[in-house]
Write a structure and sequence with these properties.
The complex is a heterodimer.
Chain A: H1 2-13, H2 18-30, H3 32-49, H4 60-74, H5 77-80, H6 83-107, H7 131-164
Helix pairs in contact in A: 1-3, 2-3
Chain B: H1 2-11, H2 15-23, H3 27-49, H4 52-68, H5 79-98, H6 112-119, H7 131-141, H8 144-155, H9 160-167, H10 171-200
Helix pairs in contact in B: 2-3, 3-4, 3-5, 3-8, 4-5, 5-9, 7-10, 8-10, 9-10
């Protein structure tokens, strides 16, 4: 029974080879059971082909386009600005600054009398050996080290988070 | 006048041309693409959710997803095949999310309720009902996969190979599934008609 149906569906769907097609069409013409089953399946197949599609609501297209617009609006400005423009601006300023610096360095001529001859040797390093000052300096360095470690920790955490995401 | 003319011109464009226009920044072209495919996408979503509101949500979600990844559409397959594969995965995810109990979505019992709902929908007389009514009723009682395969094959202009691509299956599996789906559809039709004739007597 099943095999009859299987063959007939193959025939109706047009998946038979020419030889098979010949065999099935003679079977339908000569065998009553094949013919009845064939007619039944053809009717179903036609009904399925003529089946009406469902219609979504009138506002469907509008809702889709609104959804797309809303999603576009949600994108932060940072992601929407073309990176090449940012790079261009950066390049422009770095070239300008570099040229300016080069120009200044090449054109500047310090007159010799501005700098006193032995001025560099006359500097006196502040004395930090006395108890109070030593403590202040050590405290200052300690605070700097803690701050540095704290910032480094924050930086590494952020890096690890973005790596996981 | 001018806008209706441009619309008529756009509707003549192929899917690929509309996609190119969309990618060039013309959102109206995408609206045309949505209009062209919305009925089928909605129908396909209905085959899974069986409820209009949910189907509409799935279908909208699909078109937004398709828009988002439109640039990754390579044009190796038909746009419809690509779009329907998005519908299939979105609808399957939706069903999985919706399934609160541990019953499998392939469990026939899940759809018993819908069967009753449809037969409780007896507004018009049995005589007035058309064949398409019985067909729609029987399709609504099928499992999502069966209903989707039948819809794709008969209404989606998709070959067995394309359906296989959409559903991420082997072509032979689709062939067997289509055969079984049609068998089950006939069983449902027969059962429903038997019920009806009993009611008439």
């Amino acid at each position: 029974m099943n095999s009859i149906e299987e063959i007939l569906w193959k025939y109706i769907d047009g998946n038979c080879s020419p030889e098979e097609q010949k065999i099935v069409s003679t079977l339908i013409a000569e065998d009553e059971s094949y013919r009845l089953k064939y007619l039944e399946l053809v009717v179903l197949s036609n009904d399925l082909s003529e089946m009406e599609l469902d219609e979504p609501s009138m506002a469907f297209t509008y809702n889709v386009m609104e959804g797309i617009r809303a999603e576009h609006a949600l994108v932060p400005l940072k992601a929407r600005v073309n990176k090449r423009i940012i790079m261009g601006i950066a390049l422009f300023f770095s070239i300008t600054l570099f040229t300016l610096l080069l120009f200044v360095l090449l054109t500047i001529k310090l007159p010799a009398h501005i700098l006193p001859a032995n001025s560099s040797l006359n500097f006196k390093i502040p004395d930090i050996n006395s108890g109070k000052e030593k403590m202040v300096v050590q405290g200052f360095i300690f605070f700097d080290v803690v701050l540095g470690l704290y910032l480094l920790d924050g930086f590494l955490r952020r890096k690890a988070d973005s790596g996981r995401a | 006048m001018a806008s209706s003319e441009s619309y008529r011109m756009q509707s003549k464009l192929s899917d690929i041309e509309l996609i190119q226009q969309t990618l060039a920044g013309n959102q109206a072209a995408y609206a045309d693409l949505v209009k062209r495919h919305q009925r089928f996408v909605f129908t396909l979503a209905m085959r899974f959710s069986k409820v209009r509101e949910d189907a509409e949500e799935i279908a909208q979600d699909c078109f937004i997803k398709a828009y988002r990844s439109l640039s990754s559409f390579q044009g190796q397959s038909k746009f419809s095949t690509w779009l329907y594969s998005i519908v299939y995965t979105t609808a399957m995810t939706f069903l999985r999310k919706k399934r609160v109990d541990t019953d499998s979505i392939d469990d026939e019992n899940t759809y018993v309720q819908i069967e009753n709902q449809v037969s409780a929908y007896d507004v018009n007389n049995a005589e007035n009902r058309s064949r398409s009514f019985y067909l729609d009723q029987a399709i609504a009682q099928l499992l999502p996969d069966d209903a989707a395969i039948i819809t794709l094959f008969y209404k989606g202009e998709q070959s067995l190979e394309e359906i296989a691509k959409t559903m991420n299956m082997e072509t032979n599996t689709v062939k067997v599934k289509l055969f079984r789906a049609r068998q089950r559809l006939r069983e449902k039709l027969e059962k429903n008609l038997k019920h009806e004739t009993k009611d008439l007597i």
